Amino acid sequence: MFVLVDEREIVTSGYASAFEREGFATLELHAEELGDWLAVAPDSDLEAVEGFLIGAGETRTTFPGLIRNRCADTPIIVLEDKPSLDTTLDFFTAGVDDVLRKPVHVKEILARVGAIRRRTLAEDEKVESGPIQVFFDGRDPIVGGEDMMLPRRERRILEYLVRNTGRRVTKSQLFNAVYGVMNEEVDECVVESHISKLRKKLRIRLGYDPVESTRYIGYMLKAGQPAQSAPKLADGKKVAPVAWAPIKEMKTSSNKKLELVNS
Q1: What is the pLDDT of residue 253?
Q2: Which of 2, 94, 117, 140 could pair with 123 as two cysteines, CB 3.0-4.6 Å apart?
Q3: DSSP per-residue letters across 163-215
């Protein structure tokens, strides 16, 4: 999710639409709302933020300091209509990561945010978890050695799960990452539908379900393939293993038949 901050609603809504087309959720804030939101936003919401974009605002040079108090490593990019050297230097002094002159395409913003994260957070362009390999530049994941085409919502969920392999994430965290916080137009339960479809596709491709779910707690991508379990009968019961006794002695009876004598 990206947080868009500008005193002009037409600007934030325009970029929100562009990010939506690329499969990324946004939170649109007026310049005067940023401080209040940062003060009350829970950590789970802030963890879902992948970058801050700062546009026009009278006190915007103070925004980087407010953001760094809650999000120490999240990329901050300033979007300028008419940048000047003095203004650019002031922003870098304040702690921003980049200053871009508009118009700028969303794909360039995503590329720059990815570069910042790789440089500051040692984040790779791709992340692997067992047979699953995901990218963060819009490409489809590789599952079981082959590309898997996924709808953008399912792809974003898989990327989030892979990035948090071995850690349990809540439905709210997934929703915030995919749809953004404060999105009242979409019910949070829609995540369950996306997860169900994603798990079915992964199960078909891998032969097992790599996602573990616990009611009321959340979801977790398991790091490796589960051990083979015992086969099951038609009624769902497991087949008990057969205990074979070792052969101790073999005798030949008078009628030439062989008898096996077990201990």
Answers
A1: 46
A2: 117
A3: HTTTS-B-HHHHHHHHH-TT--SS-TTHHHHHHHHHHHHHHHHHSS--EEEET
